[in-house]
Amino acid sequence: MRLLLIEDEEGFAKALQASLKTRHYITDWADNGRDGLEHGLSNVYDVIILDIMLPEMDGLTVLRKLRENEIKTPVLLLTAKSELDDKVTGFDMGADDYLTKPFYHEELYARLRALTRRQQTTEPQTTAYGDIYMKQGSNELYCHTSGTSLPLNGKEYQLMEYLLLNGGQIISREQIIEKIWGYDSDTEYNNVEVYISFLRKKLQFLKTNVSIQTIRKLGYKLTNN
Ligand code: CA
Hints:
The protein is of the alpha/beta class. It is built from 8 helices and 11 strands.
């Protein structure tokens, strides 16, 4: 699970980040609204934890701009006690939940579990493009045309799923690294290329019409020939 925490109080943010790490959440932290929005627009997060009072751009504006840009990542708003009106406005703007500061970390974990569960049940059970598809809960990549399937290992699986979820849209190497290896990882671009080449071999073996196209300087996308 990758989280984005947009929060300007450094001590609070660092403590939360450390606490989330013990629960195996990888959390990127932005300390102002403008940076937070930029991170959020990358669309690589499972949940965004968003403070309302922020420098550069306030949380509600960040939320509005995310939704205007079709970013559907669940957003958990952090509000101060007195900000009831903000809460209402937040829901109107597409927030999924809110938590009033101060809160117990256990309370946050419970909300996060609920938000990620909700997200999973609204996603389709199969992820498909052209004649290939993956089923949730299985590590196999299937092909309708040839009627065959192949197992994918962890990173191959995540990468293939990410490509499928983006349909025929281009995803950049940076997005792939952020999504699969994590924002702070020192993964090199050629690691991405290695996994892309593994997937290409598997697609060939499946005799599918779908292939992974390299778009020079931009990234990769699936094409259906
Ligand atoms: Ca704040």
